[in-house]
């Protein structure tokens, strides 16, 4: 013992005598001293060691309960600088909804597009971000709307310690989803009789230079900013894979959505409830599996595929197929490192939380419904293509706080973006009709055009979804998705 410790010990025993502890035996005194020292140590640790600080709870109704926190995450701080590359038809709207919820609850600032996508399908440039004033001038925390990824420009907008992640889906399932959604949009799909017909002879229908045909070939590769029309070679595929690996810390899989959410929550140090979600943007469902995502029993004739046609689609999308296989293997390595048993426990917990929240929030036991059946027009999802895109009805009679928390979980992407936009830019001129959803086409005037000014030599044209395309001499176009879902 040092002199200082001896002194402290003596002064402590004097105080204990003063408190009446002199009646206790020596064993009890020693125990009491130990307890006092341990308590003081804890207190100092909490005060001075920041890594002991538990993640701040989102001010969500659900997270107030212990179950909503989930199993402990250890000594980490919640990540609040996040870039999510929102790939198409991969469950990305469900993930964006989580990011919107988390950011809203934590009062974070979103890098939002002027319209609904960041200039897609053109490669991303920082000027597409509303409120961008130059590299690192304005502070943005979360970015997650559709874009064609281009890292040097994203880096101008997001802080250096940003966590980059994205999600992939099996290219055959993705092709079905894409065909159903973009049937009338991608010329290659429009011309074919069905997906099977397209798979049998894609070159008959596919013209690489036609606008929106990127939805028909290696769509993931395209979204990651790579050349989706390049001829497949293993060397090329590996180079692309390496680029994705370099740029993204975590790649999720939509087929293993719940396991993905567990990995994500641990990577971000987030409470369980932030990654509990209801599947958004699903095609009309037949049955609902336990995992909570909407499955399809019988596909419409135009989407039916033989085993050979599935194989042909893999070959047609060979670059995406490579990417999917490579990251599928990485994904399971991560699960292995995480611990299979621990993963199973957390997935079970996540699913039971989803069931609890579905019972609280959703009408008809949580079954998604056709947009036309949703009484509140403000939460009807956007419709496109061959099939009906489903949404949810809220349970009637909820108290206001619960209603708001539930609403956040089912609010479709477009309406949610409008709401956040309005909060972040209360004084800016908003789109007429913002935050009001309807099934009808409502083309909105885009405020960014008025702010930046339309240049001489540019002409306005609309894309399939109401996006305003500004065409100039070099044929560059800007998107401002202007159709409400
Ligand atoms: N939780 C979960 N797990 C697995 N799959 C899910 C989940 N949530 C949504 N989905 C399915 O994702 C498809 C929609 O994808 P996106 O939201 O990325 O579409 S979009 O690009 O934003 O239009 C769409 O696929 P299809 O139904 O096959 O079209 C959704 O059903």
Automatic annotation (TrEMBL):
GO terms for cellular component: Golgi membrane. The keyword Phosphoprotein does not apply. InterPro entries: Gal-3-0_sulfotransfrase (IPR009729), P-loop_NTPase (IPR027417). It is a single-pass type II membrane protein. GO terms for molecular function: galactosylceramide sulfotransferase activity. Keywords: Glycoprotein, Golgi apparatus, Membrane, Signal-anchor, Transferase, Transmembrane, Transmembrane helix. Pfam families: Gal-3-0_sulfotr. It is found in: Golgi apparatus membrane. GO terms for biological process: glycolipid biosynthetic process. SUPFAM superfamilies: P-loop containing nucleoside triphosphate hydrolases. Its main location: Golgi. Belongs to the galactose-3-O-sulfotransferase family. This is Galactose-3-O-sulfotransferase 4. It comes from Hemibagrus guttatus.
């Amino acid at each position: 013992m040092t002199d200082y410790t001896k002194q402290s010990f003596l002064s402590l025993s004097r105080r204990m005598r003063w408190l009446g502890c002199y009646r206790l035996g020596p064993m009890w005194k020693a125990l009491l001293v130990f307890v006092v020292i341990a308590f003081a140590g804890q207190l100092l640790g909490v005060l001075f060691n920041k890594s002991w600080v538990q993640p701040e709870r989102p001010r969500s109704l659900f997270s107030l309960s212990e179950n909503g926190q989930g199993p402990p995450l250890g000594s980490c701080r919640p990540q609040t600088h996040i870039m999510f590359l929102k790939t198409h038809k991969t469950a990305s709207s469900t993930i964006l909804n989580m990011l919107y919820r988390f950011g809203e609850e934590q009062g974070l600032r979103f890098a939002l597009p002027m319209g609904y996508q960041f200039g897609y399908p053109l490669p991303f440039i920082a000027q597409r971000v509303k409120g961008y004033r130059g590299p690192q001038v304005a502070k943005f925390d979360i970015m997650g709307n559709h874009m064609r990824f281009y890292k040097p420009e994203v880096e101008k907008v997001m802080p250096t310690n940003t966590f980059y992640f994205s999600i992939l889906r099996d290219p055959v399932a993705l092709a079905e989803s894409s065909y159903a959604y973009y049937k009338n949009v991608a010329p290659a799909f429009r011309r074919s009789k069905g997906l099977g017909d397209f798979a049998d002879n894609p070159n008959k229908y596919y013209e690489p230079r036609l606008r929106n045909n990127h939805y028909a070939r290696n769509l993931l590769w395209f979204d990651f900013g790579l050349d989706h029309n390049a001829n497949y070679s293993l060397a090329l595929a590996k180079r692309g894979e390496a680029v994705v690996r370099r740029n993204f810390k975590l790649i999720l899989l939509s087929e293993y959505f719940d396991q993905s959410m567990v990995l994500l929550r641990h990577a971000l140090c987030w409470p369980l409830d932030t990654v509990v979600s209801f599947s958004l943007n699903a095609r009309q469902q037949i049955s609902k599996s336990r995992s909570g995502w909407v499955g399809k029993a019988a596909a419409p004739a135009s989407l039916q595929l033989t085993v050979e046609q599935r194989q042909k689609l893999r070959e047609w999308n060979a670059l995406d197929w490579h990417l999917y296989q490579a990251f599928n293997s990485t994904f399971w390595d991560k699960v292995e490192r995480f611990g299979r048993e621990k993963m199973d426990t957390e997935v079970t917990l996540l699913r039971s939380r989803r069931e609890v929240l579905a019972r609280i929030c959703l009408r008809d036991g949580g079954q998604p419904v056709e947009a036309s059946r949703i009484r509140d027009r403000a939460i009807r999802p956007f419709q496109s293509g061959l099939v009906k895109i489903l949404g949810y009805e809220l349970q009637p009679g909820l108290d206001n706080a619960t209603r708001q928390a539930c609403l956040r979980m089912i609010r479709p992407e477009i309406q949610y973006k409008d709401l956040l936009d309005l909060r972040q830019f209360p004084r800016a001129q908003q789109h007429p009709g913002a935050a009001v959803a309807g099934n009808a086409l409502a083309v909105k005037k885009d405020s960014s055009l008025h702010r930046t000014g339309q240049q001489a030599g540019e002409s306005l044209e609309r894309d399939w979804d109401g996006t305003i395309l500004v065409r100039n001499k070099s044929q560059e176009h800007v998107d401002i998705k202007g159709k409400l879902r």
